[in-house]
Amino acid sequence: MGPTRLRYTMIGFIIGVFIVYMKDLPIGEGTRFAAPFYLAGVGLLIDGIILRLKQRKGNEE
C-alpha cells in the first residue's frame, strides 16, 4: 500500500469510529458498528479516483 492509499483508508476508518460513538444518530446499530469498515472502503475508492485523475492529467501533458 502506498502512503496516500493508507492515509485515505485511515481517515475513513477514524471517521467511522467517531460515528460508532455518536449514539444519537438516527441509523441502525449494525450500520453504526460497521461504519469504520464502510468508510475505510470509501477511502480506498476515493484514493483510486484521485490516482486515475492524476494519471490522466499526466498522460495529457
Quick recap:
84% of the residues lie in helices and 0% in strands. The protein has 61 residues and is mainly α. The chain has helices spanning 3-21, 29-60.
Features:
84% helix, 0% strand, 2 helices, 61 residues, mainly alpha
Strand content: under 5%
Mean model confidence by pLDDT: 86
Number of strands: 0
The parts where pLDDT drops under 50 for at least 5 residues are none
The largest β sheet comes out as: none
Number of helices: 2
- The string of secondary-structure elements, in order, is HH
Helix content: over 70%
Keywords: Membrane, Transmembrane, Transmembrane helix
Transmembrane segments: 7-23, 35-53
What does this molecule look like?
The chain is an all-alpha fold and 61 residues long. It has one domain. Helix content is 84%, strand content 0%. The chain contains two helices and no strands. Helix 1 packs antiparallel against helix 2. The longest helix is centred in the C-terminal third of the chain and has 32 residues. The chain is elongated. The two termini are 27 Å apart. The relative contact order is 0.19. The model has no long low-confidence stretch (mean pLDDT 86). Keywords: Membrane, Transmembrane, Transmembrane helix.
